[in-house]
């Protein structure tokens, strides 16, 4: 049994919802969470900058002697997942695949709306992931650059009607 913690990072506080789910699913696991709120949001940055930040975040967590990485940031996942998976010898998981799977499973009309940062939406990562699971789904995407700061200001908690 590997008692080392799981490393989780996001560009701010939004990843705390991912952290909460990990704790619910794996209550005995130790977790090191890194919220890079000093450089948030990542979604308004260039792809190169997001990749650089992602590598720095992972290196920081590796210094904490973790056993795996969870990228809880959609933008970091969209911009750098392929690069980091090939650069680090540690399991790395992200939130796009599970998010897409949940959306496909929950839609009742085969229509899915995706809101996110400019970088996440323009990457097309959710569209590709969703269509891979169900090519018949209609996808509507909208970049909402002010949404992330709004959520961060609310402490990661938003209640929508």
Automatic annotation (TrEMBL):
Keywords: Cell shape, Cell wall biogenesis/degradation, Isomerase, Peptidoglycan synthesis
Gene3D superfamilies: 3.40.50.1860
Gene Ontology biological process terms, A to Z: cell wall organization; peptidoglycan biosynthetic process; regulation of cell shape
EC number: 5.1.1.3
A Gene Ontology molecular function term of the record: glutamate racemase activity
Keyword Cell wall biogenesis/degradation: yes
Catalytic activity: L-glutamate = D-glutamate
Keyword Cell wall biogenesis/degradation carried by entry: yes
SUPFAM superfamilies (UniProt xref): Aspartate/glutamate racemase (SSF53681)
InterPro entries per the UniProt record, alphabetical: Asp/Glu/hydantoin_racemase, Asp/Glu_race, Asp/Glu_racemase_AS_1, Glu_race
Recorded superkingdom: Bacteria
PROSITE patterns membership: ASP_GLU_RACEMASE_1
NCBIfam families: glut_race (TIGR00067)
Protein name stated in the entry: Glutamate racemase
């Amino acid at each position: 049994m590997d008692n080392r913690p799981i490393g989780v990072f996001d560009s701010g506080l939004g990843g705390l919802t991912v952290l909460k789910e990990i704790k619910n699913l794996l209550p005995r696991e130790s977790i090191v969470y890194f919220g890079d709120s000093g450089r948030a949001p990542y979604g308004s940055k260039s792809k190169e900058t997001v990749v650089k930040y992602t590598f720095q975040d992972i290196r920081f967590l590796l210094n904490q002697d973790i056993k795996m990485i969870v990228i809880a940031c959609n933008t970091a996942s969209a911009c750098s997942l392929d690069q980091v998976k090939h650069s680090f010898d540690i399991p790395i998981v992200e939130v796009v695949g599970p998010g897409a799977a949940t959306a496909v499973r929950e839609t009742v009309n085969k229509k899915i709306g995706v809101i996110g940062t400019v970088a996440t939406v323009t990457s097309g990562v959710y569209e590709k992931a969703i269509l891979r699971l169900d090519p018949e789904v209609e996808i509507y995407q909208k970049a909402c650059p002010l949404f992330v700061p709004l959520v961060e200001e609310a402490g990661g908690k938003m209640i929508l009607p």
